Amino acid sequence: MQKNVVKGDHNVFVMKKLKFLVLFLTSLILINSLLHFVSSPEGLYRLQFEAKNKQDSYIQVYYGDSDQFSEMQSFKVKLGQNDSVNGTVSGQFLRIDLGDNQGVWQLGNMIVSTRFKSYGIGLEDTGIKKVNNISSIKSKNRNIEIIADKHDPNFEIVIPDNVYAEMKKDFKNELFLSNILISIIPGIIVALVIQRRTLILYWIREFYAQRHLIRNLSQNDFKTKYSGSYLGIFWAFVQPVATVLIYWFVFQIGFRSGPVQDAPYILWLIAGLVPWFFFSDAVTNGTYSLLEYNYLVKKIVFNINILPVVKLVSSLYVHIFFILLSFIVFGLYGYYPDLYYIQILYYSICMIVLAYALSLLTSSLILFLKDIGQFISIVLQFGMWLTPILWNISMMPQRLHWLMKLNPMFYVVEGYRDALIGHVWMVERYNQTIYFWTFTIAVLWLGTFIFKRLRPHFADVL
């Protein structure tokens, strides 16, 4: 009898694992197919060449899929008298600016490298065109000698078609491998979500059933936060507006920051600060939610899972106001609402889920480790400056961009700017979308797990 029970338990265990494996493989195939559909085979590659000049100068390289170049797709290298230019680029078209120095330049030994192969290119084979402020170009041993007779000499080149065709094959192979690797973690998470769908639906039904309580508590929280001041809730809107004006004055008036992405700096700044204000406020208040409502935590029959949600909704009132105010300011500058603005709703949902996930984790831990509050405050201060909100990510070397993109709020901030300024759909940032939701769901799972484990001890420590 006991053997049959053990055997039955083993069969159940095996069936669960097989079911998970089937779900995982199905999710992996579907996600990989989606990535293959929306992704482009045009990839990044390394560009390297030698440059010699008798004076210290700099070289700026522009790149793209056509001869219409922009600062967003460029990198700059400061050179001595004999140095190497090295950077990550994309596209078949390149423009090389030789700084402000007149005189003789010698360029050569150009190499373009994908992840699989390197290709040596003679500069005389690249079809030099659109020469500006250059008196002569001479070819010698696959190198070129340039005599610049005016300031700001530059010329354009095109990677030879036969070489770029081989590079495209490398891009496709790289894309195939990267899509498989990218699909693994989301595939696992999707399989887990499907397996635990009953628990997830239970949480959603709980929040919906208590929506009136959440609304009443959040409204009361919003009012009581400023109840002791003469101007009341007016301060909830004045402080962020004052902060925006200070940053605008310092960076545009003081540091003379110019337009970013062909938009006035003030608009670019607002599009980054509005989501950050909500996220910072929601995480900070959510961290202290159990401490602030300790009298409810001690009640046996009260569902304390909604307390971080109450703080989120309380912060959401100000966020909605600033979204509407942003639309007005953008309209004054000639940027009127269009279909891309719909994405604001999606990116707001992204922030709400991320902030709730972090609040579950931090609100549980702060009851046992009071230092968590100070730690969160410092992390948010660093996050404000490490997220490209006040500065443009193009100011950093491109090889470090991936490090900035590990910050999940980078995805949200760039998403707001894509919706309001850049007119870029979220599917065009599929890699970042998958990373964001993978990170967020992982944090949500961890926060839920710790919250449930520590919940029986909350009342004891309060």
Q: What amount of the residues lies in strands?
A: 15-25%
Instruction: Give the tally of structural domains.
Output: 2
Mean pLDDT: 81
Q: What would you report as the Rg, rounded to the nearest angstrom?
A: 28 Å
Task: Assign the structural class, choosing from mainly alpha, mainly beta, alpha/beta, alpha+beta, or little secondary structure.
Answer: alpha+beta
Indicate the overall shape.
globular
Biggest sheet record: 6 strands, antiparallel
User: Uncertain spans, ≥5 residues at pLDDT below 50?
Assistant: none
Strand count: 11
Which H/E pattern describes the elements?
HEEEEEEEEEEEHHHHHHHHHHHHHH
Regarding quaternary structure, what we see is single chain
Helix content: 55-70%
Task: Give the end-to-end Cα distance, rounded to a whole number of Å.
Answer: 49 Å
Which keywords apply here?
single chain; 462 residues; alpha+beta; Lipoxygenase-1; five-stranded antiparallel beta sheet; 15 helices; 16% strand
In summary, what is this structure?
The chain has helices at residues 2-38, 161-195, 197-209, 211-224, 234-254, 265-287, 289-292, 294-297, 307-332, 343-365, 371-386, 401-405, 408-422, 430-454, 458-461, and strands spanning 44-53, 57-64, 74-79, 82-90, 93-97, 103-113, 118-121, 129-132, 134-140, 143-148, 154-158.
